[in-house]
Amino acid sequence: MLELEDVHTYYGTSHILQGVSFRVPAGKSTVLLGRNGAGKTTTIHTICGLLRCRQGRIRFLDTDIQNLPAHRISQLGMGLVPQGRRIFPSLTIRENLTMSARPNPFTGTKDWDLERVYELFPILKEREKNQGTQLSGGQQQMLAIARALMTNPHLLLMDEPSEGLAPVVIDQIGDILEHLKQTGLAILVVEQNLDLALRTADEIMIMNKGNIVWQGTPEQLATSDDVRHKYLGV
Ligand SMILES: Nc1ncnc2c1ncn2[C@@H]1O[C@H](COP(=O)(O)OP(=O)(O)OP(=O)(O)O)[C@@H](O)[C@H]1O
């Protein structure tokens, strides 16, 4: 589905991603954990074309995407739920959703349409005439996920979906991630929240100082006290 091979990304002369390699398999949920500043958002932005890597290869489905602009990568079937939600404040909830609607680029199908996202997120239907900014943080996160689903992606990238949310809302986001996993969607989530990762991931990777330093299952991480302590501080 997605494969990074020896990816190096810089901000000016700062060498941030220092040879990152990993795979995100089809139909699985992969979570990238790491402390503040580890390079998680830089990884997401490099994958979706908002940042250009200086070295390395990124393959999505059967296409090399490392030199493609962000809009072309998105059109190949990659949906982004950005850090901080980035809801369009002057649009209604319905408009936030319909403006991104499009069929899957390969199958032409619209499995995700307004009706189906409203079924998954009833609160968005109830408040469809409200502006995006009138929603709570958790509701905005749901809108950001729903908006990405409206593009009928093959792969969903999520950048810190639990950020700034209360534990009860993080639980709801966990339920949504589990539901999406069962639909067969491939998901790459960047997170700092260990519990959410342990609950929803098929595979977990840990990033530290721009490198992948550990990879394994949630069960392995749950029993690896030294790894959690060293790289996540818990
Ligand atoms: N625009 C930028 N210019 C220069 N350095 C940056 C820029 N954005 C991020 N960095 C640096 O790159 C490194 C990785 O940042 P990144 O945002 O990818 O980390 P992160 O793991 O997503 O952390 P966070 O949870 O804080 O978002 C950090 O040292 C950060 O200071």
TrEMBL record:
The lineage of its organism: Bacteria, Bacillati, Bacillota, Bacilli, Bacillales. Belongs to the ABC transporter superfamily. Gene3D superfamilies: P-loop containing nucleotide triphosphate hydrolases. Keywords: Amino-acid transport, ATP-binding, Nucleotide-binding, Transport. GO terms for molecular function: ATP binding; ATP hydrolysis activity; branched-chain amino acid transmembrane transporter activity. PANTHER family: ABC TRANSPORTER ATP-BINDING PROTEIN, HIGH-AFFINITY BRANCHED-CHAIN AMINO ACID TRANSPORT ATP-BINDING PROTEIN LIVF. It comes from Kyrpidia spormannii. Residues 2-234 form the ABC transporter domain. Pfam families: ABC_tran. This is ABC transporter ATP-binding protein. One of its GO terms (biological process) is L-amino acid transport.
